[in-house]
Amino acid sequence: MSMGKGKGKAESLDRVPVEIQEALILEDLLFVLMGIPGTYITLPPDYSPEDEDPLEGLRFVVSSSLDPSLRDSVERILPLATYYTGICSFIEMKSHLDLGLVNHALCAALRNMLKDYQTLLAQLEHAFNTSPTFTLHKLWFYVHPTLHTLSLLYQLTTELATADDPSGSASSSSSPNTSDAEEEARNEALGLGGAKLKAVLNEIDKNGHEASGIPVKGGEVLAIIWDRIQVMYGDPTANTLYSALLRSAGKPYVEMLQEWMRTGRLVDPYEELCVKESKFIDRGTLEMDYTDEYWERRYTLRDGSTLGSTKQNLAGVPPVRAVGGRLPGGACVPPFLERWKHKILLAGKYLNVIRECGIEISKDSSETNNQEIFLDDEKFYKVIEEAYTHANHTLLRLLLREQQLIPRLRSLKRYFFLSQSSFLTHFLDLSHTELRKPAKGASLVKLQSLLDLALNTDAQGEDALFREDVKVTMAGSSLYEWLDKVLRENGNFNDQDGTDTQSASHTSHRSKKKGEGDEKQLLASDTLQLDYTVNFPLSLVISRKTILRYQLIFRFLLHLKHAERSLSTMWIEHTTLTWRKPLKLPTPRPSLSRPPSRPPSRPGSSAASHPPTPQPPENDWRTDLENWRKRVFLLRARMLACVQQMLAFATFEVLEPNWRKLEGKLEAGKVETVDQLLREHVDFLDTCLKECMLTSRKLITSCSRILRVISAFALYNSALSKDANRALATGESPEWVQQSANRWEILGRFETNFNHWFKVHMDCIQFYASSENVSLLPLVVRLNGIKGPL
User: How many whole angstroms separate alpha carbon 761 and alpha carbon 693?
Assistant: First the structure.
């Protein structure tokens, strides 16, 4: 029989006996099962390598002249050739260097499985050449189990290829383009060529929409294999086959995870892990920048999820696949690691912080470390838990013991919460002149030297160890304006990093609209604040966001202390002869016991909101002056009592109890993880801010107005003393009536403003104490004891 060559066709088998047809077709099958077209089993006439997808495998057709019974048997065997060629094309395409270690391991496992298939074909060929009883039915008997196995592999490779190319067609070539070497190198240098650019171009589908540009690799490959295991769970063969592939493909993934969890080193050259490193962020940003980006953004999960939050940080997260709805590449966390991903991230992050401190980390020599671990092994989850616990305890011990975290927090409490404020009193006495200057005219160098002098004189014990870390800075805006702006725009302090309060060059939006006259009213005492310097790794706990909260509380306490000091200075002035000189009063008459122009006024009364117009006094000038001085004394005493009660409430009933709770948790070992430590620290500061009335716009407004009235009254003390001296000098002169009316009018304005804002503040405190903030109830009791003028 003459055989066709090239595109020639074999002669018809119509006149050939069935036994000879079977022998001829068996010989063809042994070639076809290796992907080589035979004589009577060939490729379709319309086959074109450029138009066909190699990942789908080769499709063979049988000669129409073959006996029908033989054709049925051959067509049952032919899918083996399609599966084999499709799997071989997948192995060749996925073996490229850029596709990652997981794909390489998967291809190696597939290659080993195909070796068994090739061994079977060699044995079948030997039987065909040596055994005269070898028939087509025996061939089917031997390859039938393999058909099911290769079909499972083919389904897996098809799903992997489909996920990589949603348009349904793989890349047109499974090997790099063989273009001119010099031109390719030149394009690579110019950024116009290379495998990465070609991969991106191949990811553009027919509709012109760009896909993610990330090939199927890393965790996504393992997720697809795991999904196949779950879908085919009822098939023992499929379960065993896919489990073996998962173990083999996951071996490099496990090794990278173990390296990360045991040493803190992220060795992921092809971005296959669920953990991502932002190399442009180093620990220097903790000192230069005003955010704790190193801890939050240096190492993150590729899927954007964060611990303790249902929201995702979508910045840098690639879009999901059109097929399957999975995140591409390493951003896809395998389902069996979903509940462990945060511990995986934190275990390596903790150890990385320790390495950044210069402490070398050695791999533990436990039994699980010396054993080979697979992804589907229960020991793997035990390894994750042990690595997380070890890393967590190591870093926590480093912070609490070696880095002296608790003494650091105590020093912050001392300097910012004024637990021992003798240094502040000394500092305010030394810098009194400098603090009365405008904020832009005050000298930071002089203020810093005065603070150092006060600290060196006052600091003792462990507080003296950290006094050099306390610095003086000037905020760019008023405390209450900044708080009002933040609460109006954001509603919380979580997104604030302290940049608005750190530099005097940054002014608030409201202050920019004011004129130069208003800007001069911002004194150095209004913008003074402390700053605190800490080194890595303590800067993870005492970050810029936490220092901002300390500064807000300190500025609030400083304003109260400054108001108390001004009123105390006013009291000293009121002990002089001008205010205490006894006057020979005439016989008192009931109707003239007090000027009729000033009826009694109490906080909360209607008279506090509607001041009466002072009338010229009709009584003796001595009685009038004595009553006026008493009213000044009484207003000063009420203001001082108000400030002292607010200060005592903030220090003794808010800051001190909350600090004791935090300190007790740290010393008793109730804080078991570093993230719990960070969370407890921030929660402590947020609680203090809320209970100090710094998270409500209404409370902030009323409190700031009260302090503003008190400051204005204290600044007006010299004018009041001049009025008292003038009254003593003029005596019974005709001018005393007009002077008395002016004195009472000015005092009435101060009383009216203070009574009004005191009532507003009390109403706000009572409302919030009964609804949102129960901790304000002690302040209500304290302020209720401040009575109005009798």
Answer: 11
Whole-prediction pTM: 0.74
Neighbour count for residue 736 (Cβ, 10 Å): 19
**Per-residue model confidence as pLDDT tens digits over 626-635:** 788 788 888 8
260 CB contacts (<8 Å, ≥6 apart)? 266, 267, 273, 275, 344, 347, 348
Long-range contacts formed by 320-327: CB under 8 A, 24+ apart: 321/163, 321/166, 321/211, 321/212, 322/166, 322/211, 323/162, 323/163, 323/166, 324/163, 324/224, 326/163, 326/220, 326/223, 326/224, 327/220, 327/302, 327/303
Q: Kindly report, residue by residue over 342-353, the tens digit of the pLDDT.
A: 999 989 988 888
Q: For 233, which DSSP code?
A: T
Please list, in sequence order, all residues whose beta carbon lies within 8 angstroms of the beta carbon of residue 163, skipping any fewer than 6 positions away. Answer: 216, 220, 224, 321, 323, 324, 326
Kindly give the residue spans of alpha helices, DSSP state H, lying in 417-491: 422-430, 432-435, 444-458, 479-489
Do residues 153 and 110 make contact, with C-beta atoms less than 8 angstroms apart?
yes
* Digit-coded pLDDT (tens) for 158-178: 998 887 655 544 443 333 333
Strand-pairing partners, residue 438, are: 523
Beta bridge partners of 523: 438
- In the structure encoding, which two tokens stand for residue 785, read together? 């004891």
Compute the distance between CA of residue 190 and CA of residue 213 in angstroms, rounded to an integer: 20
β partners of residue 472: 530
CA–CA dist 638, 747 (Å, integer): 14
Average pLDDT of the chain to the nearest whole number: 79
Tokens of 90: 């997948």
Residues 6+ apart with CB under 8 A from 735: none
Query: Do the strands 470-474 and 299-301 form a parallel or antiparallel pair, or are they unpaired?
Result: unpaired
CA angle 106, 110, 111 (to 5 degrees): 115
The answer for residues whose C-beta is within 8 angstroms of residue 564's C-beta and 6 or more apart is 640, 643, 644, 647
DSSP string, 86-149: HHHHHHHHHTSGGGHHHHHHHHHHHHHHHHHHHHHHHHHHHHHHH-TT--HHHHHHHHHHHHHH
Distance from C-alpha of 239 to C-alpha of 152, rounded to nearest angstrom: 10
Q: Distance between CA 447 and CA 424 in Å, rounded?
A: 12
Within a 10 A sphere around the Cβ of 616, how many other Cβ atoms? Answer: 13
Q: How far is Cα 91 from Cα 100, in angstroms, rounded to an integer? A: 13
pLDDT tens for each residue of 472-528:
988 888 888 888 888 877 666 655 555 444 443 343 444 444 444 444 467 888 888
What are residue 471's DSSP bridge partners?
531
* Residue segments in the chain with a per-residue pLDDT below the cut of 70: 1-11, 164-212, 281-295, 307-315, 362-371, 458-464, 490-521, 581-622, 727, 729-737, 787-790
Furthest-apart CA pair in the chain: how many Å?
A: 153
* Residue 236: strand, helix, or coil: helix
